[in-house]
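Quick one, probably user error.
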Protein backbone atom coordinates (compact mmCIF):
# COMPACT_ATOMS: atom_id res chain seq x y z
CA UNK A 1 0.00 0.00 0.00
CA UNK A 2 1.31 3.45 -0.87
CA UNK A 3 1.29 6.22 1.74
CA UNK A 4 -2.24 6.86 3.01
CA UNK A 5 -3.54 9.98 4.71
CA UNK A 6 -5.67 10.23 7.84
CA UNK A 7 -8.60 11.40 5.67
CA UNK A 8 -8.18 8.51 3.25
CA UNK A 9 -8.24 6.11 6.20
CA UNK A 10 -11.61 7.52 7.25
CA UNK A 11 -12.95 7.17 3.71
CA UNK A 12 -11.64 3.62 3.42
CA UNK A 13 -13.18 2.64 6.77
CA UNK A 14 -16.56 3.87 5.57
CA UNK A 15 -16.13 1.92 2.34
CA UNK A 16 -15.37 -1.26 4.31
CA UNK A 17 -18.31 -0.69 6.66
CA UNK A 18 -20.70 -0.25 3.73
CA UNK A 19 -19.30 -3.32 2.02
CA UNK A 20 -19.45 -5.54 5.11
CA UNK A 21 -22.90 -4.64 6.41
CA UNK A 22 -25.94 -3.83 4.24
CA UNK A 23 -27.53 -2.05 7.22
CA UNK A 24 -24.85 0.67 7.19
CA UNK A 25 -25.64 3.91 5.40
CA UNK A 26 -24.11 7.40 5.31
CA UNK A 27 -26.03 10.63 5.87
CA UNK A 28 -24.76 14.21 5.81
CA UNK A 29 -24.79 17.53 4.03
CA UNK A 30 -23.44 17.34 0.45
CA UNK A 31 -21.84 13.93 1.04
CA UNK A 32 -23.36 12.25 -2.01
CA UNK A 33 -22.20 13.50 -5.39
CA UNK A 34 -20.02 16.24 -3.90
CA UNK A 35 -18.29 13.92 -1.40
CA UNK A 36 -18.66 16.15 1.64
CA UNK A 37 -16.90 19.33 2.76
CA UNK A 38 -13.58 17.49 3.13
CA UNK A 39 -14.22 14.74 0.53
CA UNK A 40 -14.39 12.05 3.22
CA UNK A 41 -17.14 10.31 1.23
CA UNK A 42 -15.74 10.92 -2.25
CA UNK A 43 -17.06 8.32 -4.76
CA UNK A 44 -18.84 6.31 -2.05
CA UNK A 45 -22.25 7.33 -3.38
CA UNK A 46 -21.29 5.91 -6.78
CA UNK A 47 -19.92 2.71 -5.23
CA UNK A 48 -22.99 2.21 -3.03
CA UNK A 49 -26.03 3.74 -4.75
CA UNK A 50 -28.98 4.34 -2.46
CA UNK A 51 -26.87 4.19 0.71
CA UNK A 52 -25.13 7.60 0.75
CA UNK A 53 -27.71 10.33 1.32
CA UNK A 54 -27.55 14.11 1.25
CA UNK A 55 -29.13 15.64 4.33
CA UNK A 56 -30.98 18.93 4.78
CA UNK A 57 -29.18 21.73 6.58
CA UNK A 58 -30.64 20.65 9.90
CA UNK A 59 -28.38 18.77 12.28
CA UNK A 60 -31.38 18.25 14.56
CA UNK A 61 -33.23 16.44 11.77
CA UNK A 62 -30.12 14.48 10.78
CA UNK A 63 -29.64 12.98 14.23
CA UNK A 64 -33.37 12.41 14.72
CA UNK A 65 -33.54 10.44 11.48
CA UNK A 66 -30.45 8.41 12.43
CA UNK A 67 -31.94 7.47 15.80
CA UNK A 68 -35.15 6.31 14.17
CA UNK A 69 -33.22 4.29 11.60
CA UNK A 70 -31.07 2.70 14.33
CA UNK A 71 -34.18 1.66 16.25
CA UNK A 72 -35.32 -0.16 13.10
CA UNK A 73 -32.00 -2.04 12.73
CA UNK A 74 -29.86 0.28 10.60
CA UNK A 75 -26.35 1.48 11.47
CA UNK A 76 -26.08 5.08 10.30
CA UNK A 77 -22.82 7.00 9.98
CA UNK A 78 -23.60 10.71 10.23
CA UNK A 79 -21.17 13.34 8.97
CA UNK A 80 -21.34 16.76 10.54
CA UNK A 81 -19.69 19.32 8.29
CA UNK A 82 -17.91 20.70 11.37
CA UNK A 83 -17.97 19.55 14.98
CA UNK A 84 -19.23 23.00 16.00
CA UNK A 85 -22.49 22.47 14.11
CA UNK A 86 -23.35 19.37 16.14
CA UNK A 87 -24.59 21.69 18.88
CA UNK A 88 -27.68 22.25 16.70
CA UNK A 89 -28.44 18.52 17.15
CA UNK A 90 -27.44 18.52 20.82
CA UNK A 91 -30.89 17.68 22.15
CA UNK A 92 -31.21 14.64 19.91
CA UNK A 93 -27.71 13.42 20.79
CA UNK A 94 -27.74 13.75 24.58
CA UNK A 95 -31.46 13.46 25.39
CA UNK A 96 -32.47 10.85 22.82
CA UNK A 97 -29.52 8.83 21.47
CA UNK A 98 -27.54 8.68 24.72
CA UNK A 99 -30.51 7.65 26.84
CA UNK A 100 -32.37 5.35 24.45
CA UNK A 101 -30.96 2.04 25.66
CA UNK A 102 -31.41 2.96 29.33
CA UNK A 103 -35.00 4.06 28.76
CA UNK A 104 -36.21 1.33 26.41
CA UNK A 105 -33.64 -1.51 26.35
CA UNK A 106 -33.27 -0.73 22.63
CA UNK A 107 -29.70 -0.12 21.32
CA UNK A 108 -28.88 3.03 19.38
CA UNK A 109 -25.91 2.09 17.14
CA UNK A 110 -25.21 5.39 15.41
CA UNK A 111 -21.79 6.87 14.63
CA UNK A 112 -21.52 10.65 14.47
CA UNK A 113 -18.39 11.90 12.74
CA UNK A 114 -17.24 15.30 14.03
CA UNK A 115 -14.50 17.07 12.02
CA UNK A 116 -12.91 18.62 15.10
CA UNK A 117 -10.21 21.03 16.20
CA UNK A 118 -8.59 24.03 14.63
CA UNK A 119 -6.84 24.87 11.40
CA UNK A 120 -5.25 28.19 10.49
CA UNK A 121 -7.89 30.75 9.51
CA UNK A 122 -10.93 28.68 10.50
CA UNK A 123 -12.01 30.92 13.36
CA UNK A 124 -14.52 30.45 16.19
CA UNK A 125 -17.30 28.63 14.32
CA UNK A 126 -15.25 25.91 12.58
CA UNK A 127 -12.48 25.02 15.04
CA UNK A 128 -13.97 23.78 18.29
CA UNK A 129 -13.21 20.54 20.11
CA UNK A 130 -16.49 19.15 21.47
CA UNK A 131 -15.32 15.91 23.09
CA UNK A 132 -15.50 17.21 26.66
CA UNK A 133 -19.10 18.34 26.27
CA UNK A 134 -20.33 14.99 24.99
CA UNK A 135 -18.22 12.99 27.46
CA UNK A 136 -20.26 14.56 30.26
CA UNK A 137 -23.31 12.53 29.25
CA UNK A 138 -23.75 8.82 30.12
CA UNK A 139 -24.49 6.50 27.22
CA UNK A 140 -22.12 8.03 24.66
CA UNK A 141 -18.76 6.65 23.53
CA UNK A 142 -16.25 9.41 22.71
CA UNK A 143 -13.32 8.54 20.43
CA UNK A 144 -10.39 10.79 19.50
CA UNK A 145 -8.11 9.02 16.99
CA UNK A 146 -4.66 10.58 16.62
CA UNK A 147 -3.14 8.23 14.04
CA UNK A 148 -3.99 6.93 10.58
CA UNK A 149 -4.29 3.46 12.06
CA UNK A 150 -6.78 4.53 14.71
CA UNK A 151 -8.77 6.64 12.26
CA UNK A 152 -9.34 3.46 10.23
CA UNK A 153 -9.82 0.77 12.87
CA UNK A 154 -11.71 2.85 15.42
CA UNK A 155 -14.23 4.01 12.84
CA UNK A 156 -14.85 0.42 11.78
CA UNK A 157 -15.22 -0.59 15.43
CA UNK A 158 -17.57 2.35 16.07
CA UNK A 159 -20.05 1.07 13.51
CA UNK A 160 -20.09 -2.34 15.21
CA UNK A 161 -20.80 -0.97 18.69
CA UNK A 162 -24.34 -1.03 20.05
CA UNK A 163 -23.86 2.40 21.63
CA UNK A 164 -23.95 5.85 20.00
CA UNK A 165 -20.41 7.00 19.17
CA UNK A 166 -19.06 10.53 18.88
CA UNK A 167 -16.10 10.12 16.52
CA UNK A 168 -13.87 13.19 16.86
CA UNK A 169 -11.59 13.23 13.82
CA UNK A 170 -9.16 16.14 13.70
CA UNK A 171 -9.26 18.31 10.58
CA UNK A 172 -5.62 19.38 10.88
CA UNK A 173 -4.58 15.73 10.57
CA UNK A 174 -6.63 15.07 7.41
CA UNK A 175 -3.75 15.80 5.04
CA UNK A 176 -0.82 16.40 7.41
CA UNK A 177 -0.71 12.84 8.75
CA UNK A 178 0.28 9.82 6.66
CA UNK A 179 1.17 6.17 7.21
CA UNK A 180 2.33 3.30 5.06
CA UNK A 181 -0.49 0.97 6.13
CA UNK A 182 -3.34 0.58 8.62
CA UNK A 183 -1.20 -1.28 11.14
CA UNK A 184 -2.86 -3.23 13.94
CA UNK A 185 -6.10 -2.45 15.70
CA UNK A 186 -6.33 -1.78 19.44
CA UNK A 187 -9.45 -2.14 21.56
CA UNK A 188 -11.64 0.90 22.12
CA UNK A 189 -11.06 2.17 25.65
CA UNK A 190 -7.38 1.23 25.71
CA UNK A 191 -4.73 3.98 25.80
CA UNK A 192 -1.38 3.63 24.04
CA UNK A 193 2.13 4.44 25.20
CA UNK A 194 3.22 6.48 22.18
CA UNK A 195 6.67 7.13 23.65
CA UNK A 196 8.21 5.49 26.75
CA UNK A 197 10.00 7.63 29.33
CA UNK A 198 11.07 7.92 32.95
CA UNK A 199 11.11 11.61 33.94
CA UNK A 200 7.56 12.87 33.29
CA UNK A 201 4.27 11.74 31.76
CA UNK A 202 2.29 13.65 29.14
CA UNK A 203 -1.28 12.43 28.71
CA UNK A 204 -2.89 13.74 25.55
CA UNK A 205 -5.06 12.83 22.56
CA UNK A 206 -5.97 13.77 18.98
CA UNK A 207 -3.71 16.31 17.23
CA UNK A 208 -2.02 17.27 20.50
CA UNK A 209 -0.33 13.86 20.48
CA UNK A 210 1.99 15.00 17.71
CA UNK A 211 2.78 18.34 19.35
CA UNK A 212 3.53 16.45 22.57
CA UNK A 213 5.80 13.96 20.84
CA UNK A 214 7.79 16.79 19.29
CA UNK A 215 8.04 18.46 22.70
CA UNK A 216 9.28 15.21 24.23
CA UNK A 217 11.94 15.00 21.54
CA UNK A 218 13.00 18.57 22.33
CA UNK A 219 13.34 17.67 26.02
CA UNK A 220 15.44 14.65 25.08
CA UNK A 221 18.13 17.06 23.95
CA UNK A 222 18.21 18.30 27.55
CA UNK A 223 18.67 14.78 28.86
CA UNK A 224 15.05 14.08 29.86
CA UNK A 225 12.97 11.12 28.74
CA UNK A 226 9.28 12.06 28.65
CA UNK A 227 6.62 9.37 28.40
CA UNK A 228 3.67 10.23 26.14
CA UNK A 229 0.31 8.52 26.58
CA UNK A 230 -2.25 8.71 23.76
CA UNK A 231 -5.70 8.34 25.32
CA UNK A 232 -7.29 7.34 21.97
CA UNK A 233 -10.63 7.03 23.72
CA UNK A 234 -11.89 9.82 25.98
CA UNK A 235 -14.87 7.80 27.18
CA UNK A 236 -14.28 5.09 28.22
CA UNK A 237 -10.96 6.33 29.62
CA UNK A 238 -8.07 3.98 30.36
CA UNK A 239 -7.24 5.12 33.89
CA UNK A 240 -5.01 2.09 34.54
CA UNK A 241 -2.54 3.01 31.81
CA UNK A 242 -2.43 6.62 33.03
CA UNK A 243 -1.76 5.60 36.63
CA UNK A 244 0.88 3.08 35.60
CA UNK A 245 2.71 5.78 33.66
CA UNK A 246 2.56 8.24 36.57
CA UNK A 247 3.89 5.50 38.83
CA UNK A 248 6.94 5.24 36.57
CA UNK A 249 7.61 8.98 36.24
CA UNK A 250 6.11 10.77 39.26
CA UNK A 251 5.15 13.82 37.18
CA UNK A 252 2.11 14.57 35.04
CA UNK A 253 1.20 17.09 32.34
CA UNK A 254 -2.14 16.72 30.54
CA UNK A 255 -2.52 18.43 27.16
CA UNK A 256 -5.71 19.07 25.20
CA UNK A 257 -6.83 21.45 22.46
CA UNK A 258 -10.26 22.08 23.96
CA UNK A 259 -11.06 25.03 26.21
CA UNK A 260 -9.62 24.80 29.74
CA UNK A 261 -12.77 25.03 31.87
CA UNK A 262 -13.62 21.46 32.92
CA UNK A 263 -13.09 18.78 30.33
CA UNK A 264 -10.77 15.90 29.56
CA UNK A 265 -7.59 17.39 31.02
CA UNK A 266 -9.38 18.17 34.27
CA UNK A 267 -10.82 14.67 34.42
CA UNK A 268 -7.41 13.04 34.01
CA UNK A 269 -5.90 15.17 36.77
CA UNK A 270 -8.88 14.51 39.05
CA UNK A 271 -8.48 10.76 38.63
CA UNK A 272 -4.74 10.85 39.26
CA UNK A 273 -5.09 13.16 42.27
CA UNK A 274 -7.82 11.05 43.85
CA UNK A 275 -6.43 7.59 43.06
CA UNK A 276 -2.65 8.08 42.92
CA UNK A 277 -1.75 11.23 44.83
CA UNK A 278 1.01 9.29 46.60
CA UNK A 279 2.72 8.62 43.27
CA UNK A 280 3.21 12.31 42.42
CA UNK A 281 6.51 14.09 43.00
CA UNK A 282 5.14 17.42 41.72
CA UNK A 283 1.71 19.05 41.34
CA UNK A 284 0.06 17.87 38.11
CA UNK A 285 -0.25 20.46 35.34
CA UNK A 286 -2.62 20.86 32.41
CA UNK A 287 -2.33 22.83 29.20
CA UNK A 288 -5.30 23.74 27.02
CA UNK A 289 -6.23 26.36 24.47
CA UNK A 290 -6.92 29.84 25.79
CA UNK A 291 -10.29 30.50 27.43
CA UNK A 292 -11.47 32.70 24.55
CA UNK A 293 -13.24 32.10 21.25
CA UNK A 294 -10.84 30.73 18.65
CA UNK A 295 -9.24 33.52 16.57
CA UNK A 296 -9.18 33.65 12.78
CA UNK A 297 -5.69 35.02 12.25
CA UNK A 298 -3.14 32.19 11.82
CA UNK A 299 -0.62 33.81 14.16
CA UNK A 300 -3.25 34.35 16.85
CA UNK A 301 -4.48 30.80 16.37
CA UNK A 302 -0.96 29.46 16.96
CA UNK A 303 -0.81 31.44 20.19
CA UNK A 304 -4.26 30.28 21.21
CA UNK A 305 -3.69 26.53 21.13
CA UNK A 306 -0.96 24.41 22.75
CA UNK A 307 2.11 24.01 20.55
CA UNK A 308 5.37 22.13 20.73
CA UNK A 309 7.10 25.11 22.34
CA UNK A 310 4.38 25.78 24.94
CA UNK A 311 4.22 22.08 25.86
CA UNK A 312 8.01 21.96 26.20
CA UNK A 313 7.89 25.06 28.43
CA UNK A 314 5.31 23.44 30.73
CA UNK A 315 7.37 20.26 30.88
CA UNK A 316 10.47 22.23 31.93
CA UNK A 317 8.41 23.89 34.68
CA UNK A 318 7.20 20.46 35.82
CA UNK A 319 10.69 18.96 35.78
CA UNK A 320 12.16 21.87 37.77
CA UNK A 321 9.76 21.39 40.67
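Nope, works fine. Designed sequence:
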Amino acid sequence: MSSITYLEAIREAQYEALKENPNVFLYGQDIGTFGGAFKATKNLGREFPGRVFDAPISEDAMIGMAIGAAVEGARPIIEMQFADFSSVGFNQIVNQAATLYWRTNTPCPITIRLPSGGTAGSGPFHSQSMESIYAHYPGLVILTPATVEDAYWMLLDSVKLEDPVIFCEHKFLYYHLKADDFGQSMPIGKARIARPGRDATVVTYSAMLHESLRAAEELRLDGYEVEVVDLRSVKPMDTDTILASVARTGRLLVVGEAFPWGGVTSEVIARVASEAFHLLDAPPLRLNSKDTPIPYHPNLWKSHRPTTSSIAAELRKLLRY
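DSSP finds 13 helices and 14 strands in the chain.
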